[in-house]
Structures are given as structure tokens and as C-alpha cells.
Amino acid sequence: MASQGTTTVSTVKTDDGVNLHVKVLGDDATKRKPLLISLHGAPGLSTHMEPEASFAFLSDTFRVLVYDARGSGISDHIGPYTHDRWIKDIEILRQWAGAETFVLAGASYGAFIALDYAILHGDRLYGLLLRGAWANGKLGPMNALANILTSHKVKVDVARQVRVWSGTLRNDEDYEAAILELLPFYTPPEDESATATTEEKPESTEFKGTVKYHSATQNFAFSVNQPRFDVRDQLHTIKAPTLVVVGRHDNVTPVECSREIADKLPHARLEIFEKSGHSPPSDEPQKFEAVVADWLKADVLPVLK
In what residue span(s) does the AB hydrolase-1 domain sit (predicted)? Predict the structure, then answer.
């Protein structure tokens, strides 16, 4: 374990021997600060660096725990890569951090896992934040693929994109080529980007920190997990105050997907970012921070008092 100012970098071993790379921002020895755990998206591609960039601003008031999920980043690439196993890993990290209850944030694929966690362990949550989600894993990937193939923003290898979204990638190189040709699809239109200053519109953090591609993780997530993922009829059981965030120009998880989730949650607030694509934290960072801070102050922090 190594400390970097108020940031603690650790390797946490799970019950089945897998090592997870973990960072806690705003760490305090007394563990009096409330805990927020943030899940990255894109299995086998994204890392802790995306949620770190998105939620570091909260480290004065929260312990912000971010990590590379098993099968991603520099955590061990040892399965299973099921939602149940990833949920068990969250529980291990919650206990390791010494928190009975916490705020859970999930971005993109991490939002799917966060939804499943909230259904299974809702009593552990006093807040849930979802960014770029859908509730139906059968339709979601197919709609995303359809939007890609009809988009004027990208020219892609059709067969390769089919392999990405069906979880049938040939190898890690196939995964890398698929993502690199797809990057412009995740951003807002050029006219929206042009209205933001350099300070307001930094480089997208969606795949920040990616140095390796792990197609086995992606393949399992989209060939096994997603066809089984459908929480539409269970959303009403999630009682935690929830913030649902989506970009107006998000063609991966479009606004209607977030609206469906928010409409079925008992205590949800839907926030649409008009100048964002799939990543409001980097497309509109100042607004994102303000919206999250306001939601925490109004809906979450009062629960702790």
C-alpha cells in the first residue's frame, strides 16, 4: 500500500485470490468520510482513470474509491466476468473500506452492474448515480450497433463492429482496431464542441488510461452477460435516491434509455446534458460537477444526518 497525499493506492485480494488495483481519493485514517465507489465502463478497456477524473472533485467530502475491475486495467485478468462476480468484488471493496453504506456510481457498462447491485443490495446504498445506461441488454447493444452503422461521424468495418457488440472479437488486436475507429462516435457534434472553451471541454476521459485491450472480458460481457441483463421489471424495487445522467447526443445509450430508467425508479432525477455525447463528465465538466454536487446536497447528504 502506498500513499500519495490523500490518495491511497492498494492491491486488494478477493476471496478467490484475484488482485484488484484500487485507489481511494480523499482517504482519511479515521474513515469518517462517507464512501463513494465508482465503477468504470467498457469491460477489458476502461480503467479506474475515467471515474477518477469524473469524481476527484468530491474527495474533500467523500472517500472516492475507484479501481480496475477484474479483467480490466492492471487488475488480474481472471474470471469469471459475470455481473454476480463483479458485484461480489464491490462487496469485498466496501467491507475493505470499512463502510456499511455508501454511494454507488456507475458509468456506461458500470451502470449496468450498478443497477444489478442496487437490486440485490439496495439496503447498502444511500445514493445511486447512473451515467449512460440502458435497462435491457438484448436491445441496447443492437440499437448502439444500428446507430453506429447509420452514423455519418464514423466509417467502420461493419463485420468488426458486429463482433464487438455481439462479444465475438477474434483477439485483443481486433478489439483495439474496433475501438480506435469508433472513438468519434462517443463525442458530441462538432458544432456543440466548438461552443465550449478549452477549459470547459477537455479531452474525453471515456477511455482514459487504456494501454491494453482485453477482448476476453469484452466478449464475455456482451455474449453472456448482456443477453441476460433485463432489469426493467425490477427498477421499482430500487429505493435509493438516484441521479440519472445522459448526454443529449449519446448514441450509445440514448436519452430514451435513461428516461425509461428514471421513470421507473421511485426516487430518480434525470439530468440531460445538452452539449454532451456519451461522457458528460468530460464534455461538460463544470455542469457535471455542479449537478452532482447539488444532487448530493439535496437528496443524499441529508440521509447521513
Answer: 34-284
State how far the Cα of 297 lies from the Cα of 142, in Å rounded to an integer. Answer: 37
The pTM of the full predicted model, rounded to 2 decimals, is 0.94
DSSP letter at 230? B
Residue 216's nearest CA partner among 96, 102, 81, 115 is 81
pLDDT confidence bin for 305, thresholds 50/70/90:
low
Nearest to 204 by CA among 232, 221, 182, 173: 182
CATH number of the domain that residue 150 is part of? 3.40.50.1820
CA 238, 106, 232, 257: dihedral to nearest 10 degrees?
130
The closest of 15, 150, 130, 149 to 80, measured between CA atoms, is: 15
Work out how many domains the chain is built from and give that number. 1
Residue 158: other Cβ atoms inside 10 A: 11
Quote the domain boundaries for residue 206: 2-304
Q: What is the C-alpha end-to-end distance of the chain, expressed in Å?
A: 32
pLDDT digits (tens, 9 = 90+) for 90-129: 999 999 999 999 999 999 999 999 999 999 999 999 999 9
Q: What does the chain come to in residues? A: 305
Alpha helices in the chain (DSSP H): 49-55, 83-96, 109-120, 139-149, 158-166, 172-182, 190-194, 215-220, 226-228, 255-264, 280-283, 285-295, 301-304
Contact predicate 67/75, CB 8 Å: yes
